[in-house]
Specification:
421 residues; alpha/beta; Rossmann fold; 4 domains; 6-stranded mixed sheet; 4-stranded parallel sheet; 13 strands; 44% helix; 20% strand
């Protein structure tokens, strides 16, 4: 994994563009979040700049005149780094780097840097390196010629190749190798999942820094790393959550979502996010004190939709109520969203109510059933797969035994299919 160690705190200018009729407070929140990302990465924000435009400039992101204004700020403010709030094209990176003669990165590059520093397990480090290389490949300039030393050696340079062509080939080979490694990791994870099919699975999802890991530790009596910073957790962790004496589930903590999350990063973390895919219930953790919490909810819902995970049973867990100043927000979210519980993970407030809601959802929505089919009814099996989670399927001499988990509505559909077959 490419993890560049910093010897000093880098001083940065942050640059954003407010497009069209985007509300000013929304644009301001975006660049404030970029500042928080930079702080998480270990940098210092010296200046924040925002330009109003109808569209991004194809050559310089901001207009050429604004780019020269930024240039004039670099030397007197001892700037090391210029960070842009959107992904930059190869042309924009080249033009801005040539103009500023300083390091230029975009939001995706900054997120990847944070992920590189936070990844702990072999799986997370593999996923981060794969995402970094996919991000780097179309942005190669002379600055990346060190890659041949890192991955190559004797025999890596072909006749007539330029150094950048060599680096591109090295990166593509490395991407192919890491992709194969992740397939193997995903296969191992699926094997582990099959061995846990008898348990109901619950996953925590939410915007980064909403308090997922704190809630996870509280519910499972664990000590997973939790910190008041963005992306404190990268690795998926699963523990037993004892809801009450009669119900226990497998609870998974997952990486937090964020707006403008790079697509290649989501793709690289597919094996980790499969914990969400395999879950029966999602606990969507929301920081109720954040001024843009509804925007955060939308980002998470959109990400779940893109991953095709939005058809899950979702409980909305509004966290950090102990520091909420405007108590009217509680009434608003209770009216607007379904399956709502208001908690304070840090104080343990209303955690028993959360457990009770999980128990009610389990009892209302899910049931494990075993059915026996004749071979004349074998056509029903594919329908059961579509309507339920099949935990076990056995073909015996004179019958087919199917064990599955389904909600009450789909269980009734399956019964009607069997009766009509």
């Amino acid at each position: 994994m490419i993890d560049i160690k910093q010897t000093k705190t880098e001083r940065a200018i942050l640059v954003g563009v407010r497009i069209g009729q985007t509300p000013r407070e929304t644009a301001q929140e975006h660049i404030d979040e970029l500042e928080e990302l930079l702080a998480t990465a270990g940098g210092e924000t010296v200046i924040k700049i925002q330009q109003d435009r109808q569209r991004l400039d194809s050559a310089f992101y901001v207009g050429k005149g604004k780019a020269h204004e930024i240039l004039d700020l670099i030397e007197p403010n001892e700037i090391d780094l210029i960070v842009f709030d959107d992904d930059l094209s190869m042309i924009q990176v080249r033009n801005l780097s040539n103009l500023f003669d300083k390091k230029v990165i975009d939001r995706s590059g900054l997120i990847l840097d944070i992920f590189a520093s936070r990844a702990r397990t072999k799986e997370a480090r593999t996923q981060v390196e794969l995402a970094q290389l996919k991000y780097m490949l179309p942005r190669l300039t002379r600055a990346w010629t060190h890659l041949s030393k890192q991955y190559g050696g004797l025999g890596t340079k072909g006749p007539g190749e330029t150094q950048i062509e060599t680096d591109r080939r090295i990166i593509r080979d490395r991407i192919a190798m890491l992709s194969e490694k992740l397939k193997e990791i995903e296969s191992n994870r699926e094997t582990q999942t099959k061995n846990r099919k008898d348990k109901i699975k619950v996953s925590l999802v939410g915007y980064t820094n909403a308090g997922k890991s704190t809630i996870f530790n509280l519910l499972t009596e664990s000590d997973v790393f939790a910190e008041d910073k963005l992306f404190a957790t990268l690795d998926s962790t699963t523990r037993v959550f004892q809801v009450d004496k009669a119900h226990s589930v497998l609870l998974s903590d997952t990486v937090g979502f964020i707006r403008k999350l790079p697509a290649h990063l989501v793709a690289s973390f597919k094996s980790t996010l499969n914990e969400v895919r395999d879950a029966d219930i999602l606990l969507h953790i929301i920081d109720i004190t954040h001024p843009f919490y509804e925007d955060h909810i939308s980002v998470v819902n959109q990400t779940l939709k893109e991953l095709k995970f939005e058809d899950k049973v979702i409980m909305h867990v509004f966290n950090k109520v102990d520091i909420l100043e405007d108590k009217d927000v509680i009434e608003h979210v209770t009216r607007k969203y379904e399956n709502v519980v208001i908690v304070s993970a840090i104080r343990g407030f209303r955690i028993e109510e959360l457990k009770s809601m999980v128990k009610d959802v389990i009892e209302e929505k899910f049931g494990d059933e075993t059915i026996e089919l004749t071979y004349a009814q074998s056509g029903v099996v594919s329908s059961i797969h579509n309507l339920a989670k099949v935990n076990d399927l056995k073909y015996e001499d004179d019958k087919i035994i199917v064990k599955f988990r389904a909600d009450k509505m789909n269980s009734e559909k399956i019964r009607r299919l069997i009766e009509g077959s």
